[in-house]
Amino acid sequence: MENNELIDLSLYVDNFSKKEKINRQLWMLCRTLLIKPFSFPVFNGWRCSVYKMFGAKIGQNCTIYSSARIWAPWHLELGDNSCIGPEVDFYNQGHIMIGNHTIISQKSYLCASSHDYKKKDFPLVRKPIFIGNQVWVAADSFIGPGVTVGDGAIVSARSAVFNNVDSWTIVRGNPAYLIKERIIND
């Protein structure tokens, strides 16, 4: 772009309501004061309570590490006995729903929104993420907007998932591809 060209910022208008903007600012303050300082495991119940106060639906016996970043708790559903590990990042402008007995491992990133690049105003598009029961999203993985990870699936470490993952399968890579079926040996 030439120095003398002007950028028309009117093309980049967000579609958040005033209420969402206020809630987001309030949440950022409360996360700083009520979540981050309480990093010891004994405070897990406290952290879950704070998330619930901001609209998260959290099941029983869940663990959410204090270093996890949840953009909008009101767009989060977490099933029973599930865990959100250290430094997990939920960019959940759209909903993220996680089933029971599921682990989202450290440094994973779940992004539930994108932009419509075909329109000149580049509007935000919210696309929910569904993670099933008994799923393991291993360390440093990326789950993209609109993705469903079926029950019992494993997303191997550092994988990037842009398409749905079938139940009881194992995927890996960037982009993630099928490795094999997941079989449980008793």
How much helix is in the residues?
Answer: 10-25%
Q: Which spans have pLDDT < 50 for at least 5 consecutive residues? A: 1-13
**How many β strands by DSSP?**
19
Give the count of structural domains. 1
Query: Mind telling me which CATH architecture this is?
Result: 3 Solenoid
Keyword list:
seven-stranded mixed β-sheet, five-stranded parallel β-sheet, single chain, UDP N-Acetylglucosamine Acyltransferase, domain 1, 186 residues, alpha/beta, 27% strand
What do these coordinates show?
This protein has a single domain (15-181), classed as UDP N-Acetylglucosamine Acyltransferase, domain 1, CATH 2.160.10. With 186 residues, the protein is α/β, with parallel strands linked by helices. 15% of the residues lie in helices and 27% in strands.
